[in-house]
Write a structure and sequence with these properties.
Layout: H1 14-40, E1 49-50, E2 56-63, E3 69-75, E4 78-85, E5 106-116, E6 119-129, E7 142-154, H2 156-162, H3 172-180, E8 186-190, E9 196-202, E10 220-229, E11 234-237, E12 245-248, E13 270-271
Parallel strand pairs: 4-6, 9-11
Antiparallel strand pairs: 1-5, 2-3, 2-5, 3-4, 5-6, 7-8, 7-10, 7-13, 8-9, 10-11, 10-12
């Protein structure tokens, strides 16, 4: 039969050969474009770092309120407040035997550093009282009154470097477990320019108990509460009486690669 082709006997000829070559080339080009587009339009990883294989020791002053942190002097007259968490999905408590009686004292603390966007968290592996005389005053938080802040509630350990992504719906179950272990909750607000502000959520009784906010994690929410402005971290006192509002079930679905902390004087919030 004229034009009939048997692959294991004949060579492909004429219009069949031309059609096959054009079709194969078109398929490969389309496949390349699809693969490139799929990768290009994916959300990029953050540049947060978790030094899992490296331990760093800091000497500074330990504070347990309004959340567990160590204040260290980076250079003369410049201080950094590093949030403290335990290994695994647990926060640090004043009832921990290795921390009891160390509040407001000089300590040598060792752990795995987590950092992103100017913020630091330390996964503590060891803490000891320090013999050094340290003249470090507690940070000042300036009262801003009752304000509304829109953003996403995250667990800072994952968000700042341990997990990628450490935010959004895909990370919700992990964040719930971390915050259930009393790691301090952080409300991340991002303004229209991609600049982020970080509000540590506190409670009227000064205890970390994130149970009331677990239903809000991984969603875009608006919280209203007393805000205090700090240098490294801001504070937002949460109360269910302030009627938290879920703006949408999906949290941030984008990530600004070039986001950086706002100016010290600028808070990305709206007064009400």
């Amino acid at each position: 039969m004229k034009g009939f082709y048997i692959g294991y006997i004949n060579q492909l000829k004429g219009k069949y050969r031309k059609f096959t070559l054009i079709g194969a080339a078109s398929f490969l080009i389309l496949l390349f474009i699809s693969c490139f587009s799929f990768g290009f339009f994916q959300e990029h990883f953050t540049n947060g770092v978790f030094e899992i294989n490296r331990e760093t020791t800091f000497t500074g002053k330990l504070y347990m309120q309004p959340f567990p942190f160590i204040r260290v002097e980076i250079e003369k007259g410049y201080f950094k407040d590093i949030m403290l968490v335990k290994q695994g999905k647990f926060g640090i408590s004043e009832d921990d035997m290795d921390i009891k009686n160390l509040n407001n004292s000089a300590v040598d603390i060792t752990g795995h550093l987590i950092y992103f966007n100017g913020q630091n968290v330390l996964e503590v592996t060891d803490i000891q009282s320090s013999d050094k005389v340290i003249n470090i005053k507690p940070p000042t938080f300036i009262n801003q009154g009752v304000l509304e802040v829109t953003g996403e509630i995250v667990d800072p350990k994952c968000y700042f470097g341990v997990m990628k992504p450490g935010f959004g719906k895909i990370h919700r179950s992990c964040a719930i477990r971390c915050l259930s272990g009393n790691i301090p909750a952080v409300l991340v607000h991002r303004n229209e320019n991609g600049f982020e502000s970080y509000f540590v959520i506190t409670y009227p009784n000064l205890k970390i108990d994130n149970t009331p906010i677990l239903k809000l994690i991984g969603k875009t929410v608006r919280l209203k509460g007393k805000v205090r402005k700090g240098r490294n971290w801001h504070l937002l006192q949460y109360s269910e009486a302030m009627h938290p509002l879920i703006i949408k079930e999906q949290a941030f679905s984008y990530y600004q690669e070039n986001s950086s902390p706002p100016e010290e004087e600028h808070l990305c919030i709206t007064a009400k």
